[in-house]
């Protein structure tokens, strides 16, 4: 552990002497490892852990949280006082536990983790009052004001304003009286109306847990019983594994209802909340009121309101992205993690934590149930369920008698795509003839097609036919992706953009730059030409502008206003389109290259999820998976539907090399502008790497993304047996190496991505 900092004020002398004043530790949302001590002015008592306080820090004033008793190792004379205790509920103990745990586990500074829980500092201030007006007199004759018609009407309206409602604003009162707002202000100045400060928190309709849900099938009812029982008990984790379209949402809604009926709060975590915009509508259909959303794309004012409503217990259900886990629920009774296998639960920037795992920590701290739902649970979670650490609830059948789709591979070597005519020239095709035939037949039947390609833009690479030059990002070791609609080349890592040049920047040849490989836009171009009358949409994170637009598009698809959807992973999960019967996977091999530990698992999950969009209602579904390697275990598992064997082989492979979840991994990414310094630092780290039984350090080696935003990046990987506590090892390791200026080391415990 880093030693507790001596004092918050540096060399500034203590402002006051406090005699025997009590001291407390206050954690501040700044990158420090431990709380600072402060004195509690006696008149402020009682001050207790969790209280939000304002304290001096150097020359600033900071807001922090009382974390516990003071440490007594700061001299009395240096101790500074708490300035103010804020008028918000204390941070609940389970959230403080989570913050402690998260910092200790990820090795992130404690204060940096706290910062995630205080992400909307303005939510700590009382809402700004607005001015309302009440009648001060019964009649204008009691004032010196001349009695005009307009004035009389306003005074009457003010006197008639229902006392159950807060006093109206000038504009509202004027509207009621049918006059202009200036009349109201004139009456206030003349003493006929009294201006009063009105504090209003936004109104929230509570979801009603007693509304009847749909009639559940026997399978669903059994599963719902187990989840309801879990929601009544203390801490538990349950894996709800249901095939795509089995009604997992309806089933876990029963656990939500149970928790709400017991008067406790519920948190539902969804990956990429902004894109699963239909979920709140389903919730509203079931419970009669919307859940409170929480994600980073929300307007700040809305985040402020929701943070407060959660803290004061006025909100009972939040549906959000991973950061919702750090909201100050005073009485959380259930966490649901939908699509628990999804990589979006892992935060890569800032504090690298996995919200799925931290939800379990939060559940244990708060002694309540945690439910993980997925059709393709992660290997970690499956093993936890097998070992009995998690309860297991299966939903083996689709709802309403729908069959699972028939999945076939389409060997691209046996069925090479045939070129097509583009503006009088032959253009490469990305769709094999059998897929095109199936699409044609599907549309003719009035059904829908989803073509899945997990690549945004037009082409992932642009190259010069004359000299072979490849258009690369100036800041990253990555190709620039062409976005033809927007007429630009863009880096998907740093967002660098440039117009598509007319001549090759290397050799100067005109019109020689050619796209290489497909993105969704390019597939759409081919489809538009081959199916000129079909109604076509492209759905990718950069074409769906915001949750509302996304929800609208999903609704249009649901209603059959679209024939062919060409989409990235935003189309893969959660959606329920009754008319969608054909899914074509354009490039199933895309995610399999590269040395990523989870490449096979992730590809299987994604392709299985997207396959699951087909044939969810009466009409049967079909999936065609284009691949150059139909014998690959991922393709075989997809076709056979035998996830169990696939996971067993995955498990065996990883166990043989002691990779997660059988061993532990910690990634260290060394980065800096100066490549030499980065390499030297990497070597220095390797030299002082921990030497212990069951611990191995690999690297340094350039990271797959060797340059990112001009920063050179080298990686080391610490691999250890599960029994090893890696945090103290890494802490000592980092403490032993002095980094040159300008070089940083980012620690990622349980890395998920390997870029
Ligand atoms: N008991 C039921 N009564 C009526 N409709 C149901 C019932 N169960 C499920 N459904 C409907 O079936 C569809 C599929 O359910 P849901 O989306 O919950 O499945 P899922 O298991 O979450 O699927 P996926 O994992 O593919 O997203 C939804 O439209 C849902 O409303
Ligand atoms: Zn870049």
UniProtKB/TrEMBL annotation:
It comes from Rhodospira trueperi. InterPro entries: DEAD/DEAH_box_helicase_dom, Helicase_ATP-bd, Helicase_C-like, P-loop_NTPase, PriA, PriA_3primeBD, PriA_3primeBD_sf, PriA_C. Initiates the restart of stalled replication forks, which reloads the replicative helicase on sites other than the origin of replication. Recognizes and binds to abandoned replication forks and remodels them to uncover a helicase loading site. Promotes assembly of the primosome at these replication forks. Binds 2 zinc ions per subunit. Its cofactor is Zn(2+). Pfam families: DEAD, PriA_3primeBD, PriA_C, Zn_ribbon_PriA. It comes from the Bacteria. Component of the replication restart primosome. One of its GO terms (cellular component) is primosome complex. Its EC number is 5.6.2.4. Residues 229-395 form the Helicase ATP-binding domain. It catalyses: Couples ATP hydrolysis with the unwinding of duplex DNA by translocating in the 3'-5' direction; ATP + H2O = ADP + phosphate + H(+). Zn(2+) 1 binds at residues 464, 467, 504, 507. One of its GO terms (molecular function) is ATP hydrolysis activity. SMART domains: DEXDc, HELICc. Keywords: ATP-binding, DNA replication, DNA-binding, Helicase, Hydrolase, Isomerase, Metal-binding, Nucleotide-binding, Primosome, Zinc. This is Replication restart protein PriA. GO terms for biological process: DNA recombination; DNA replication initiation; DNA replication, synthesis of primer; double-strand break repair.
